[in-house]
Amino acid sequence: MRKRDWSKDPIRTSDSVQLKFLENFAEWLEKWEKQKTLGLSKETFLCAIQTSKAMPKLIVHLLEKEGMDYVLTGKICSDPIEKRFGDYRSLEGQTIT
Fold first, then answer.
1. Cβ(52)–Cβ(25) under 8 Å?
2. How many Cβ atoms are within 10 Å of 14's Cβ, its own excluded?
3. What is the distance of C-alpha 29 from the center of its chain?
4. How far apart are CA 18 and CA 68, in angstroms?
């Protein structure tokens, strides 16, 4: 029998358990980073902490200011902007005529 995964449920309110999880996860990451033990790279810690802090704020904004009924975090993706930055990096050093 398959059990339902609450972390994949749509987020419908600004006090949802998923948002609290993300906030707690960011705090946990910050504590881990300060321990100076083996772990993630500085850049990966920074990215994970920023994402874990920004995502709840984005979700609350979408629910409360933009009037969305729910948010599916799995649908939030940065691939298009990362592709754009990759395109810009590939142009570095090229002469445009």
1. yes
2. 13
3. 13
4. 17
12 is written with which tokens?
Answer: 């419908």
* Tens-digit pLDDT profile for residues 29-58: 999 999 988 889 999 999 999 999 999 999
pLDDT at 69: 98
The model's pTM = 0.75
What count of Cα atoms within 13 Å lies in the side-chain half-sphere of residue 58?
13
Please give the structure tokens belonging to residue 93.
């050093």
The 8-class DSSP code of residue 73 comes to G
Residue 58's nearest CA partner among 46, 48, 72, 45 is 72
Q: Residue 51 is inside which H or E element, if any?
A: helix 42-64
